[in-house]
Specification:
The chain is an all-beta fold. The chain has two domains: 135 residues, no CATH class; 170 residues, Immunoglobulins (Immunoglobulin-like, Sandwich). It is built from one helix and 32 strands. The C terminus is likely disordered.
């Protein structure tokens, strides 16, 4: 149920939770304070000329009409150990951030999400249409872990895993873990020392798949894993031809042996250094593998994949339109210039 029009003429504090208004106008010099996760849903136009402060709290402002921001919105955290909160500013009409020489002050410790296409699925923004493959390609995926090695504590070791994926020809990617769990996040619990392989499979909307694998190790006071732990995470799942694709590497060996490294970048290129970096000379989809071996021959293997695109040739002015040109779907207007997602 709507609370009517929200147009405060002095500083005000809102309770956490959802608030629904017919319109919203926060004038210059007025501060709106919220303390906790808050959603401001405006069923018409909204303007923020003053400021909204939501310290370390998730904040979402959504307007059915236009949203104009020339003031400030700030939900930063001040404590070093605080969990960052996202800031979302969305409009179903025009989203104008800055106007007539007025520069807004948008501050967040989490993700800043600006969109005038809030109903557009997230995957549409991950890989813009002009970078997608014209031919159907399987998705690419990678995984990361809270740690490559854990010790048993009260009889168990717990690992947090996170997957991400991109479909080169466009579309969502759904994940399933070899534990049977689904979704992009999973938790694995082991109750004995040893080396364990973890695998996630991503499936696109055409049924094509990708997989990513890591090896984690568990130790206790009496036993240690006899193989290295290794986790490889693509920094970005998408790279341009000729630009280095980078990979984060987490390796652990209980015996502290001198390890050897064998990279296979999927295009015939190899490397024997621990750091992962490779520039591809042709567009396509590439499977990447790192094998880590100790002097006794024990191994750990991690895999992932990347999509490499040919940068489109286009004029510099093709990436923006100046008012009064029509706003393209999904564009964000910052300082009077359209920015494509």
């Amino acid at each position: 149920q709507s609370e009517g029009d929200f147009a405060p003429d002095k500083d005000v504090t809102l309770s956490p939770g959802p608030h629904v208004y017919d319109s919203m106008a926060i004038p210059p010099g007025v501060t709106v304070q919220v303390t906790g996760a808050t959603t401001l849903e405006v069923r018409g136009d909204a303007s923020i000329q003053g400021q909204i402060l939501a310290p370390c709290s998730p904040l979402q402002v959504t307007a059915t009409g236009d949203l104009v921001i020339t003031g400030g919105v700030d939900n930063r955290c001040t404590a070093d150990d605080a969990t960052p909160a996202d800031l979302t500013l969305a409009a179903h009409g025009s989203l104008l951030v800055g106007a007539d020489g007025q520069s807004p002050n948008l501050q967040t410790s989490g993700d800043l999400i600006l969109t005038n296409a809030p109903d557009t699925p997230e995957w549409e923004f991950i890989l813009p249409p002009d970078l997608r493959s014209a031919l159907p390609l399987p998705p690419v995926c990678g995984l990361s872990a809270s740690s490559s090695q854990e010790a048993l504590v009260e009889g168990q070791a717990v690992f947090g895993l996170q997957a991400e994926g991109v479909d080169p020809d466009g579309g969502p990617v759904a994940f399933r873990w070899d534990s049977g769990a689904s979704g992009d996040a999973a938790q694995y619990t082991f109750t004995a020392a040893g080396a364990y392989t973890v695998t996630v499979t991503g499936t696109d909307d055409e049924g094509a798949t990708c997989s990513a694998q890591a090896q984690v190790t568990v130790e206790d006071a009496d036993a240690a894993a006899d193989a290295p732990a290794v986790v490889v995470t693509p920094v970005e799942l998408v790279a341009a031809v000729g630009e280095p694709a980078l990979f984060q590497v987490d390796v652990w060996d209980a015996q502290n042996d001198a390890l050897t490294f064998a990279w296979d970048y999927g295009d015939g290129a190899t490397s024997d250094v621990i750091t992962g970096s490779h520039a591809y000379n042709a567009p396509g989809r590439y499977q990447v593998q790192l094998t880590v071996s100790d002097p006794g021959g024990a191994r750990g293997t991690a895999t992932g994949s990347v999509y490499v695109y040919e940068p489109p040739a286009r004029a510099a002015t093709a990436a923006m339109f100046c008012p009064p040109a029509a706003r393209p779907p999904g564009a964000v207007v910052i300082g009077g210039v359209h920015q494509f997602p």
